C-alpha cells in the first residue's frame, strides 16, 4: 500500500507491506504532525522525496532505521497500531 503527503515542498511516502489496514486519514495526519515538528527543529530536509518503509509482521517485533531519504520500520501487528500509545511508541523509532 502507498500513501503520501507533502510538507515544506518535500513529498513524503508511506509504504506498507503486510496485513495492516490503517485508518488512512489518521495515519497521514499523525505522520504530517511529527514531520512538521521535526522540520521546525531541523529547519530543512536535504531531499525532495522521503520514504517511510513499513514492514508489518505477525510476530512481536519492532525496529527502525533512518537513512538519508528513508526510514525503515518493522512493526508487530499484535497491537492495535492506530491507538495513541502505540503511535507514540513508533514515533520514537522514527525520531
By DSSP (H or I, 4+ residues per run), the number of helices equals: 2
Q: Say what the CATH topology is.
A: Neutral Protease, domain 2
Widest sheet: strand order? 1-2-3-5-4
What are the segments in which pLDDT stays under 50 over at least 5 consecutive residues?
Answer: none
Residue-averaged pLDDT, rounded?
84
Task: Please name the CATH architecture.
Answer: Orthogonal Bundle
| End-to-end separation | 23 Å
Structural class: alpha/beta
Shape: globular
Number of beta-strand segments: 5
Q: Which percent bin holds the helix content?
A: 25-40%
| Percent of sequence in beta strands | 35-45%
What report would you give on this structure?
The protein is an alpha/beta fold and 95 residues long. The protein has a single domain, classed as Neutral Protease, domain 2. 32% of the residues lie in helices and 36% in strands. It contains two helices and five strands. It has helices at 24-42, 84-94, and strands at residues 2-7, 10-17, 49-57, 63-66, 70-76. β4 (63-66) and β5 (70-76) form a beta hairpin. The longest helix has 19 residues, at 24-42. The chain is globular and about 35 Å long. The protein starts with a strand and ends with a helix.
